Amino acid sequence: MLAYPIWLVRLLAWALKRLLVRLRRPPAFVGLLIESPPPEPPPAPLPRWQRLLGRPPLSVAELRERLGRLGTDARVTGVLLHLRPLALSGAQVEALRDAVASLRAAGKRVICWAPAYNAETYRVAVAADEVLLQPGGDLSPLGLCRPYLFLGEALERVGVRADLIQVSPYKTAGDLVMRRGFTPEAKEMADWLADAAFTETVMAVTDGRNLDPEGARSLVDRSPFTDQQALAEGAVDAVLAEEEVAGRLGAAVVPWESARPRLPRARPPRPGRVVGLIRVQGTIVDGRSRRAPVLPLRLPLLLEDLCGDLTVVEQARALAVDRRVGAVVLWVDSRGGSATASEAIAAALAHLARRKPLVAAMGSVAASGGYYVTTAAQRVFAHPSTITGSIGVLAGKFVAGELLDRLLVGRELVVRGRYAALNHYEHPYAEPERRRMLEQVDRSYQVFVERVAAARGRPTAEILPVAGGRVWCGRQALEHDLVDELGGLDAAVAAARDLAGLPRSAPLVEA
Fold it and tell me: How many CA atoms lie less than 13 Å away from 293 in the CB half-sphere?
């Protein structure tokens, strides 16, 4: 009952503050610094002790909120994006490009400036009106180079062997520890993913620099460039120091922190139903979710996000009965993990989807179990460069008996039951054990394929040619009808509002 009175007070305060803000002259150009790879949704709240270890980076959602405030203020001419050289995934690049495109669609000029560009930040920059480069800076090679490591021989040398069972040769997640190089199937898949990523770069340069595809491909092939070469080649529009940008624009550039008090805030949303947000982020595990601390370096298994089925199932059940939640968006950024945890999450999400609209949005990667959990959604969105698919199963163990022999470690094994030592590290699978493991893998794969087929409304025979562990980029997944639309979190939230009949102002609220 108090929601509307509180909202009216907030609305009055907003109106008064907006009036005061309108009396202050805003800057013509506002500067925004992007210094860390931005996550698409804001990072989930961290425990207080973890906040002392580092500050979360600016997210794409937060950047969009800032750009939205600038886009709706007719007094603001444009934005200067200061891009640091960042290691961005293809999906992060596309999320930033979408944000730039939205601001330009609002009639604002967007200028990108950087001390140097790598291939990823250059793809972001060419979405702007102008691309500026610092004197002495350079443009890195715009092509694609993806290293693949194979540790099979190295592990064998120290007495360790990976004994893994793949549902098909395309399920290559274990090749890192099993192989000495590419299998034909792995090489085929690496090639089609590389071709797709390279095509996205050429398309970005084509659109951003007003070139035909052949000219854009030639520009990419001729890179890297020094600052003067980049200018001569038309890869950038000007070479100048950041202090000189204001002179080129004919107006001062005010940093966001200084400009913010002079910009109107969005109108407080009217009380009503909201869109819930569930995250499947990190390795999917049995048990509870755990967030890694914000550190410059993430150590696999030790310092990575873990998405537990108990946590997500509880969230899904709570949202299913929450009358305030009109629709739910599932955000997935995961390479998969436990098959049993993925099934538990998918089942809970399917129950949720029977009660209210559920829309999935894929981040940089939604593969294997990360794809599995999206099958409950009515609509699935992916960025063109999202890594997805990998509809398949992998199981096995590391065998370390030889290593222990070399270390002179004595051991004895007492066993009761024919297959009790099935997963023990002492020895590889014997043939009867391998058959039993293959039965489990085949059953898990059958469940996976049937769930995908039911979700996509297709017979299993049509799913098999794009399954078997094959990995796709988002654009390829759309062509194979594994996702419904290309887009990011914003597009998924808009679709969820439409499906639930919610107003555009309905906020997104974390579970």
Answer: 11
Single pTM value for the model: 0.89
Contacts of residue 186, defined as CB under 8 A and 6 or more positions apart, other chains included, come to: 169, 170, 172, 175, 179
Number of H helices, E strands in the chain: 20, 20
| Neighbour count for residue 301 (Cβ, 10 Å) | 7
Rounded Cα gap, residues 444 and 167, in angstroms: 10
Residue whose entry in the numeric block shows the structure tokens 């790598």 = 118
Query: If we measure between CA atoms, which residue out of 146, 148, 150, 147 comes closest to residue 175?
Result: 150
Q: Residue 265's CB: how many other CB atoms inside 10 A?
A: 12
One-letter amino acid at 445 equals Y
Beginning with the edge strand found earlier in the chain, give each strand of the sheet holding 238-239 in spatial order.
238-239, 130-133, 109-114, 78-83, 29-34, 253-255
* pLDDT tens column, 444-486: 999 999 999 999 999 999 999 999 999 999 999 999 999 999 9
**What distances in angstroms separate CA 37 from CA 91, 158, 305, 376, 377, one per listed residue?**
11, 37, 16, 29, 28
The mean-pLDDT minimum among 110-124, 263-277, 366-380, 392-406 falls in: 263-277
Question: What is the enclosing helix (H) or strand (E) of 395?
Answer: strand 394-399
Q: Is 318 helix (H, G, I), strand (E, B) or coil?
A: helix
In sequence order, the 6+-apart residues with CB closer than 8 A to the CB of 112 are 80, 81, 83, 124, 125, 128, 130, 131, 132
CB 289 within 8 A of CB 306: yes
The encoded tokens of residue 61 equal 């959602």
Given a cut of 80, whether residue 194 has pLDDT beyond it is yes
Distance, CA of 275 to chain centre: 20
Mean per-residue pLDDT, 89-102? 94
Calculate ∠ Cα 349-444-284, nearest 5°: 50
Residue 390 makes CB contacts below 8 A (sequence gap 6+) with 171, 173, 335, 336, 367, 368, 371, 469, 470, 471
Is the pLDDT confidence value at 298 over 60?
no
Strand partners, 472: 388
CA distance 367 to 333: 9
| Residue 320 DSSP label | H
All residues at 6 or more sequence positions from 414 whose CB lies less than 8 Å from its CB, including other chains? none
**What's the rounded Cα separation, in Å, for the pair 255 and 31?**
5
Could you give the residue ranges of the DSSP H alpha helices within 148-280? 152-157, 175-178, 184-208, 213-222, 227-233, 245-249, 256-259
The residue ranges of DSSP E strands in 335-376, in sequence order, are: 358-367
CB of 12 closer than 8 Å to CB of 61: no
